[in-house]
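Sequence in, structure out.
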Amino acid sequence: MGYTGRILVARTGKPFEGANLLHEIDLGNGWRWAQLDGDARGALAALVEESGRPALSAYVMDSDVADVEALSPSGSGWHTYLHPDTAAEFGAPELEESADEVLMQALAWAAEAGLIPDPEAIRALLTAHNTFAEETLRELVAALGINPG
């Protein structure tokens, strides 16, 4: 049985708090990865509003698929599924944007966050399939330019 819950990635400058926090990683430069027990609806918008910086959220289902959303203070953002074939098998609604559109939106989001993304790695990860969706998400976060260190 895999992990089901919300993962938040944000440049908060301080540790996440809350009773449903399972695990947290300091990714460096103020960026943090918080793995929550269950969902935390509205957490992404609240993080962006509180920090004034772009943030990313993923709802992971049984480690098989991740529903990823990113948002920035300007209101721009993007949405995709990691492991899209599995998302379709789970009955997830079709995405409104193509992979190319998501890539362009993700690059704009990364630029607003002051990051240096790897466009080719992001493009590949939008259709990649690892054993665990969390692994694919970690790779996507790194490709966006958020690297531990």
